[in-house]
Amino acid sequence: MDNVRIGKFKGFTTFDLKIIGIVLMFIDHIHQMFVPMGAPSWLDWFGRPVATLFFFVSVIGFSHTRSKEKYMLRLYLGMVLMAMGSFFLQKIVGYEEVQLMNNIFRDLLVGTLMMYGIDKLSEGFANKKFGKILFGIVMILFPIISSGILLSLMSNPSTIMAAVWGANFIPALLFAENSVMVLLIPLMYLAKNQRWLQCVLIALVAVLFFFQGSTQWMMIFAVIPIMLFNGEKGRGMKNFFYVFYPLHIWILYLISAYMYTH
């Protein structure tokens, strides 16, 4: 008999986690795009664990990438292109029933900047280099400080448009799709060698959402595939997500616009 393993589950690879996230995300975005046509609200439930899954995958990816700077650059380009693409698509189509606010690249970039800052802070303390310590602190605080600056500018009628446009190019925490929930990324990074602690952090955030009456508490279900993660990369799909994420949102948006107007 061939050395083919049949029915032996060895856990999920990083590739598997991405695929799970993509499938759940797609279902969630069907709900988002087809609400004007009466899409059932329960479709939204499928998307609640997605951000958490991608946050966990970003911690794994950042921990193992060869160039953390290139990793951040890819996310930055993804963030800007997504923002610009969605803006111009909405202007051209003029379909106001659905707003394209999605940009997970911003969330992941904010978290990655903080992880990068944690690394520099750790290196600075280890080598007793004040410059690296200071740089690390700046990187960690940048998404928070930039949020405050942008919000301040938005409160002034004379600077509001500059701030709105600036938000497309600045990775600010409070302008991320998942806002302060993005802080889970640096927290999970600090606990990257303790999977149980990462899951506890996820559970604590889920409990907070539960008591707020938000369906986001369903993010707790991300713990299941995370606990089953086997530490392996699996098949490579380095650039697939960068293309699939904006493309599927824009295509669903166009289909929704066509169906609504015909």
From TrEMBL:
| Membrane spanning residue stretches | 12-34, 46-63, 75-94, 100-118, 130-154, 160-187, 199-228, 240-260
| UniProt keywords, alphabetically | Membrane, Transmembrane, Transmembrane helix
- InterPro entries, alphabetically? TraX (IPR008875)
Protein name, as recorded: TraX protein
Q: Which organism is it from?
A: Candidatus Enterococcus palustris
